[in-house]
Amino acid sequence: MATGPRGKAATLALRRRLLSNSCRLFFPEDPIKIVRGQGQYMYDEQGAEYIDCINNVAHVGHCHPLVVQAAHEQNQVLNTNSRYLHDNIVDYAQRLSETLPEKLCVFYFLNSGKERVVFANTWCGTMALALPDILRHLPQTFPRRPVLPHPICPGKWQHRLRLCSRSEANDLALRLARQYTGHWDVVVLDHAYHGHLSSLIDISPYKFRDLDGQKEWVHVAPLPDTYRGPYREDHPNPAVAYASEVKRVVGSAQEKGRKLQGEDFVPDIVTMGKSIGNGHPVACVATTQAVARAFEATGVEYFNTFGGSPVSCAVGLAVLDVLEKEQLQAHAASVGSFLMELLGQQKAKHPILGDIRGVGLFIGVDLIKDEATRMPATEEADYVVSRLKENYILLSTDGPGRNVLKFKPPMCFSLDNARHVVARLDAILTDMEEKVRSCETLRLQP
Question: Does the keyword Magnesium apply (predicted)?
Answer without folding.
Answer: no
